[in-house]
């Protein structure tokens, strides 16, 4: 790994931990155990080691029961519908659909799937993009999943149904949904950046 790639991985790891994970923890969207587990996953994903100046996170004893890979570690998906209901009590589903229609949202979901889903259907994604150019076309979580074989979103029916998302995607949704959450992400990013610079 080149020095430039290592530096980019360090920034990505610190941002993911200090901004995304800590905000999810503070919002009560993940537990302390899940925070520790995701931190370990991020550390390995971005190929961190002691040589980078960032020591491996301290793991809880219970984490030894889990393999540190996305394939084997269970992830508790977060209800976007429930989050939207906190702001739009009468139309949470419409709020989720409005978020899905955004170009930045689709680009983010595409990037997330490429990083996390080896079975992502790129051809289906490109076909869906062409379809969405029509003003009358709408995008739902179910449609996104069926067209692209996505794993970042889940669409559930019945009691407690609605749209669910991986915590990383839920974080992006909450930033769109609530300006105070987005602001806290920005503040956390600058705090993490300052800490990283001071450690150089």
Describe this structure in words.
59% of the residues lie in helices and 5% in strands. It is built from nine helices and three strands; from the N terminus they run ααβαααααββαα. The chain has a three-stranded antiparallel β-sheet with strand order 1-3-2. The longest helix is centred in the N-terminal third of the chain and has 24 residues. It is globular. It starts with a helix and ends with a helix. 24% of the residues are buried. About 6% of the residues have low confidence.
Coarse shape: globular
Radius of gyration: 18 Å
Strand content of the residues, in percent?
5-15%
| SSE series | HHEHHHHHEEHH
Number of helices: 9
Poorly predicted parts: 60-72
Helix content range of the residues, please? 55-70%
What's the N-to-C terminus distance?
19 Å
Question: By helix and strand content, what is the structural category?
Answer: mainly alpha
DSSP, total strands: 3
Strand order of the largest sheet: 1-3-2
Average pLDDT reading:
81
Largest sheet, in brief, is: 3 strands, antiparallel
């Amino acid at each position: 790994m080149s020095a430039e790639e290592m530096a980019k991985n360090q920034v990505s790891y610190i941002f993911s931990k200090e901004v995304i994970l800590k905000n999810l923890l503070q919002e009560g969207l993940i537990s302390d155990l899940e925070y520790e587990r995701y931190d370990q996953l991020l550390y390995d994903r971005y190929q961190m080691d002691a040589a980078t100046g960032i020591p491996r996170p301290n793991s809880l004893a219970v984490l030894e029961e889990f393999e540190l890979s996305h394939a084997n570690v269970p992830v508790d998906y977060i209800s976007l519908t429930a989050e939207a209901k906190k702001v739009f009590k009468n139309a949470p589903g419409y709020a989720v659909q409005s978020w899905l229609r955004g170009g930045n949202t689709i680009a983010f979901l595409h990037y997330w799937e490429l990083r996390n889903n080896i079975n992502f259907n790129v051809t289906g994604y490109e076909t869906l993009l062409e379809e969405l150019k029509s003003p009358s076309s709408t995008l739902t979580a179910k449609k996104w999943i069926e067209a692209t074989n996505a794993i970042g979103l889940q669409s559930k029916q019945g009691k407690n149904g609605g749209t669910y998302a991986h915590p990383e995607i839920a974080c992006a949704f909450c930033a769109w949904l609530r300006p105070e959450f987005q602001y806290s992400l920005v503040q956390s990013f600058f705090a993490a950046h300052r800490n990283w610079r001071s450690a150089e």
